[in-house]
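User: Run a structure prediction on this.
Assistant: Running it now.
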Amino acid sequence: MPADDINIQLAKIAAAIAEPARATMLCALMDGRARTSTELAILAEISPSTASAHLGKLRDQSLVQVLAQGKHRYYQLAGAQVAAALESLMVIAGKVASQFTPSTPERLRQARTCYDHMAGEYAVAIHDYLLRNTYLVAQHYATAYELSADGEQLFDTMGIQVDTLRKSRRRFACACLDWSERRPHIGGAVGAALLTHFVQHGWVEADLDSRALQVMAKGRRQFTKYFKLI
């Protein structure tokens, strides 16, 4: 890209960040969690319609992206490069990123079902561990995953047949935005297989009257063994 075009684009990005309400919303997303436009409007102390207009401008400059989860739309930073740039600006400005405070009841927040796979703190931690150690490899803008050779070996050690999962007509593995944590857990055939394994082997036990999953003592030991969760 010619230098003049880069300078023009830089000016557009700087202008998008410079507006106080937009800067507030970007800083609120620095914890890696996604938020709705309504939540961001409250944090920025502006109306929902104004927030939507601001978020449109941030999307135009590729500073945020939208995640659709059912009927809801969540916004998060567009990537690590955006977060790094904002972090540098925040250091210069002397600003501390705001902390996300979930309102989900503790028994649901720790572990629960999300259709046929597991959600909650444990599920997000498992997702992060597998991705961080390249057992899972992100595909297609981090919305889909593939298992690495080490990942397949880990699943084989646990007794989960990966070849069977690949024959399923559904998506193999994908990122599913967690309702309480606002960060991804694992959906698709892999997510469903993990939950089935956890239930069948007594790692978790489903509540009779809610989506909550109780993590059993055996489960805590096995989660530590396989996913280094404490």
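The chain has two domains: 3-93, 106-227.
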